[in-house]
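User: Let's play a game. I give you a shape written as tokens, and you guess the letters that built it. Ready? Here's round one.
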């Protein structure tokens, strides 16, 4: 009889152990998470389902999820709150926080990656540098980097090349893009995303930069006429980071499990979706078959090789040159040893 009870007791303990291992060994019981923009597919199709369902199922941690629009913190403020532990995880566009971490600006210079495979190489190369910048500047750990679709050019008046932007007012998405536009002879204008359609319509600005599908969904294709698909605004990478104090409460096994889980459920599918949305945005804006609704009738301007060369020249001689004055020599060396080697550019 005693032997029977002993076997039952051992079986019960093994059962408890297996149940515990199914979830997490961390002391974290609940987390406050901020996802990216709720109107876009990254949040709707990947971030929200992951954090609200997959993550909770895998780790047994309760989640309170908000989007960037809901918390209403501008620029780097959301990462400052992450550093303080107000939030446990934050996903935001890297360009929003470069005021507090110029190292992050090195990830997404204008027109440095003309296609998504190159963009992926740059992210992979710079990941360690980015992770250290997040640790030093925001007391956080890098979890993921995913791109929005290519950030391209919408213009109201006719353009056939970048040189036609000279003298024009262009809504820029960050200081590096504004600097790039200055190099062309345009004037970079800062304004909120929601103000752009009306500003284009009224002639307050001549052109603006955003993702093709985002512009289509927000009505930019109805108030602008020319679409230029050179990614002069980069790829607007969304950087996801976890507060370092929260991260350190996870066991090494659970840390690896979390990174693999995010990679599987958010990173890989979101990169594929960005490729699809980049091409689909162009179709929806330029009168081709559009899976999102009725297409606009913008004129697609073919990217010229001389514009690619001009972009590289402005990038090296103006944008990167200005950036090197904002970061330490060690960051410049790291950039040259990573991204610089991929694109064959030396920052000086």
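Assistant: Ready! My guess for every position:
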């Amino acid at each position: 009889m005693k032997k029977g009870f002993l076997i039952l007791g051992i079986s019960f303990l093994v059962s408890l152990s297996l149940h515990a291992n199914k979830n997490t060994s961390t002391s974290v019981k609940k987390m406050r998470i901020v996802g990216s923009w709720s109107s876009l597919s990254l949040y709707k199709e990947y971030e929200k389902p992951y954090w609200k369902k997959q993550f909770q199922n895998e780790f047994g941690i309760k989640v309170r999820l908000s989007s960037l629009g809901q918390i209403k913190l501008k620029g780097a403020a959301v990462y400052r709150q992450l550093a303080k532990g107000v939030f446990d995880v934050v996903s935001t566009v890297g360009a929003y926080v470069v005021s507090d971490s110029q190292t992050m600006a090195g990830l997404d210079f204008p027109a440095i990656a003309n296609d998504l495979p190159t963009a992926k190489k740059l992210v992979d190369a710079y990941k360690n540098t980015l992770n250290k910048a997040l640790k030093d500047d925001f007391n956080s750990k890098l979890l993921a980097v995913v791109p929005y679709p290519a950030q391209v050019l919408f213009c109201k008046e006719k353009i056939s090349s970048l040189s036609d932007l000279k003298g024009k007012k262009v809504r820029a998405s960050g200081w590096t893009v504004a600097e790039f536009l200055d190099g062309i002879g345009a004037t970079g204008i800062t304004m909120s995303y929601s103000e752009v359609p009306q500003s284009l319509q009224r002639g307050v600005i001549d052109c603006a930069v955003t993702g093709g599908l985002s512009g289509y969904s927000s009505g930019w294709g109805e108030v602008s006429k020319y679409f230029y698909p050179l990614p002069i605004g980069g790829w607007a990478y969304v950087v996801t980071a976890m507060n370092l104090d929260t991260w350190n409460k996870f066991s090494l096994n659970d840390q690896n499990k979390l990174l693999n889980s995010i990679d599987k459920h958010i990173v890989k599918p979101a990169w594929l979706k960005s490729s699809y949305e980049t091409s689909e945005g162009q179709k929806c804006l330029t009168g081709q078959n559009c899976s999102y609704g009725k297409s606009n009738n913008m004129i697609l301007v073919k990217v010229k090789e001389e514009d690619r060369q001009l972009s590289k020249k402005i990038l090296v001689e103006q944008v990167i040159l200005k950036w090197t004055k904002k970061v330490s020599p060690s960051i410049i060396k790291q950039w040259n040893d990573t991204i610089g080697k991929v694109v064959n550019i030396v920052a000086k």
